[in-house]
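Re: folding output
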Amino acid sequence: MKDHNAVLGVESLSDVQIEAGKNCIVRVYDFPDALIEEIAAGTLMSLDPDGELLEFDEAITGTNLGTGDGAEKDFKGVLGSVMPGTLVITDSTETFTDNGGGVLVSSGDGSGSVDYLTGAWAVSFAAAPAADGAITAAYKPRPCGVLKHTAEEDETEGAVIVFGEVVFGHLSVGGMAPSKAELALLESINIYPVG
């Protein structure tokens, strides 16, 4: 019976039980595209700026934040939740790197800040970005929850536990057990690993 996968209702016997309590709240989110490979139940998940599911360890790169005009030095916007210490903003001349404490440290004489929960950011370049020059960002979003069921190849949406108790032994980040810091992030959004 090792490979048995009998379907009973909407769950199969091969599904891993992720919920550890009866008071879990689950939301269904779309993936940006149909999956090309399976994502295991228990995987920590994040949301991209469009509110679509990503695996938590996936970085978002090349996000266009604006375009220089040769005169304006100050730029601001909102990305969605950001993992502390992961945001990098650049105009290809000056680069702002997140110090993990909400400050974007400039490679020049500029200044900047980020709010990790909302993703609101602001930078002031030392010299105005060149006309038609792209201002881009790369970062990792904070976790939004835990995948409740294995998402199979070609699926376009996934059910995510966004509140409640989950089974610690089934949690995964990139195929590995989550770190203490990642577990603390889950608790900060009211998801409590037990067992």
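--- second protein (sequence, then structure) ---
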Amino acid sequence: MSDSVAPATPLPPLPDGGQRLRCADAVTTTPAPGEHYRVVADAVTVPSTVVQPDESSEAQGPTRLFAKWGLHVRAGAAVEVRVAPGWEDRARIGWGPGAVPTTTVQVEACPATSASAAWSVYTGGTWVAKPACVQLVIQSRGRQAEVRLAVGAACDGGT
């Protein structure tokens, strides 16, 4: 693999109710994210277009609608994705087997087994109370980035 991959930094303690994903939870690996994704903090991707939610089994609250999208995590990067402060009553996230709605997901650093395994892919997505431009916070390798995710509604100024 590339020697430009920085060593993984440890993840912070997992908050109560958070979800931690292991390397074995990835459904596949890929050499690069798809064209409808953007890289954040050089470690994770989020959709660059509006993701469309469908009704979930919940009638109301932050899990009323669900938008499915795959989380790509760069090989060697330990990542934390969380719902930004102030969004906890409106949105949830979750990936991996039996993904459950939560406000924090952590992914352990996974080694690249080949150049075609530069990104691990986890299935899941985002739950929302109603279509919105959801704020997420991503931490990896000592970096923190805030990102807007268009779930059923475009974000002002684009996605």
